[in-house]
Amino acid sequence: MTSTAPAPKSRFLVLHDYGMGGAWWWVHARSVREVLETFAKVEVVDSPEAVEWADGDLDEVDIDEPTMPPGLDGLRAKRDAQRGRPGFGALADRSIVHLRRRWDGDGDEPATYFMEVGPDGRRLRQVELADDGTMLKSGPDDWAFNPPVVDLFDPEWADKEIHPDEFEGAWLRARHVDSGQ
Q1: What are the backbone angles phi and psi of residue 58, rounded to the nearest 5°?
Q2: Is residue 69 located within the same domain as residue 127?
Q3: Fewer CB near the terminus (10 Å): N or C of the chain?
């Protein structure tokens, strides 16, 4: 009878970007995927500048510990609540995902958003369809910030996936956000 030893752990720089700032931790885990499966709405950051900056006073935690520091504990609880739901992780590990989402809140005008999202949950391209039929397209050069907007493990997003042709059709019909065409 043979048993395989668990994979060794590495240290990953983990960020929860909440818009106008973020919370950071060092997490010891077996893989990037394990980090993303364990904590909701986080990303693993590996840029040399960020790693050098973070090499100081951040909390260091082991992914297998029963308790986590404030902030990270809530992100783990959120992920635990998502794990058994249909669609959990259905969009993970894809290079590009196309989504359609209705947005009616936060003081913005109601609209339907068509998004092309990369493997890190950041928008690559977007079309905003206003209720009056106006369609505006934009890309990273048009946005001041582009944090991850989609957690690809979150089952909420699975039923918002659309075929790439639907996205491309919207993209072709839309005018650029800064043009009159």
Answers
A1: -75, 150
A2: no
A3: N
